[in-house]
């Protein structure tokens, strides 16, 4: 029993060391904060105010109600798309030989990927917190417990998106192909998630298609939490669906990563 426990402790220690190193590098270049939240803030300021009129038929009569619908979707799309594009950073490290040099160190191969993935998750979560704070003066009000559970869902979404991005990057290893691939898959998936507008306004056939999209359930769960409906079935459905998919995505990408360092 000592060997499995020792392996887990070593993996946790190595992951923490890689994570600390990655966070230190990120803190030294704080410009990522401005670039990361510039576009979401633009949408928050210029697009969200129009939702009051666009959603009037659904009972939205105030700007605060409009932001309760829009901000959860904005955070969801920001985390998913932001996570999917993290593969470019991994690809740059692969090209420069940083990952290759890690082979001669005693650090766990799995920890090399997990530490980087956790850095990306923290980066995306910080951006989400900043967007939430910016939305407060516009009337956004969310209970603390609901908000913390929403952030947990965002963390799972971010970890899943980053893991998928790393896995695809290790398979493709080509910037020219990676970008179009992410756009081709990501944009339709996001539109079918109802991140900009609730799909209650969509035709029935589009709604049926969206039900096969796991990110649709995640968006519904986020909106339920921001509305204070923590007991809504969509909350627990989204947590379970995203948690299961995150485990599968991490397992796949970790195996690919370990194989690439052999």
Report on this structure.
The protein is mainly α. 77% of the residues lie in helices and 0% in strands. The protein contains twelve helices and no strands. It has helices spanning 2-27, 31-46, 51-54, 63-84, 87-96, 98-101, 109-135, 144-172, 175-191, 204-210, 214-226, 233-260. Helix 4 (63-84) runs parallel beside helix 8 (144-172) and helix 7 (109-135) packs across helix 8 (144-172). It is elongated, with a radius of gyration of 19 Å.
Q: Can you give the mean pLDDT? A: 83
Order of helices and strands: HHHHHHHHHHHH
Number of strands: 0
Number of helices: 12
| Structural class assignment | mainly alpha
Based on CA atoms alone, the radius of gyration comes out at 19 Å
Hey, roughly how much beta strand do the residues contain? under 5%
Distance between the termini: 27 Å
Principal-axes geometry comes out as elongated
Major β-sheet profile: none
What percent of residues adopt helix (DSSP H or I)?
A: over 70%
Low-confidence stretches: none
């Amino acid at each position: 029993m000592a060997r499995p426990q020792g392996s887990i402790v070593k993996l946790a220690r190595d992951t923490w060391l890689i994570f600390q190193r990655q966070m230190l590098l990120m803190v030294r270049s704080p410009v990522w904060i401005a670039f990361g939240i510039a576009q979401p803030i633009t949408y928050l300021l210029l697009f969200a105010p129009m939702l009051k009129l666009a959603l009037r038929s659904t009972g939205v009569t105030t700007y605060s109600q409009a932001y309760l619908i829009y901000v959860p979707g904005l955070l969801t799309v920001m985390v998913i798309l932001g996570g999917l594009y993290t593969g470019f950073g991994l690809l740059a490290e692969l090209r420069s030989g940083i990952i290759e040099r890690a082979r001669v160190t005693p650090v766990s191969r799995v920890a090399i990927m997990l530490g980087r993935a956790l850095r990306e998750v923290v980066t995306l979560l910080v951006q989400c917190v900043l967007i939430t704070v910016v939305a407060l003066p516009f009337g956004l009000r969310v209970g603390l417990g609901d908000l913390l559970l929403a952030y947990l869902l965002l963390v799972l979404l971010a970890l899943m998106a980053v893991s998928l991005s790393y896995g695809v990057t290790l398979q493709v290893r080509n910037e020219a192909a990676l970008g179009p691939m992410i756009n081709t898959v990501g944009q339709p998936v996001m539109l079918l998630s109802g991140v900009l507008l609730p799909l209650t306004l969509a035709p029935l056939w589009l709604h049926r298609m969206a039900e096969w999209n796991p990110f649709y359930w995640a968006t519904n769960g986020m909106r339920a939490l921001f509305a204070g409906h923590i007991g809504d079935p969509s909350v627990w459905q989204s947590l379970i669906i995203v948690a299961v998919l995150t485990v599968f995505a991490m397992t796949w990408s970790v195996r690919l990563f370990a194989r690439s360092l052999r």
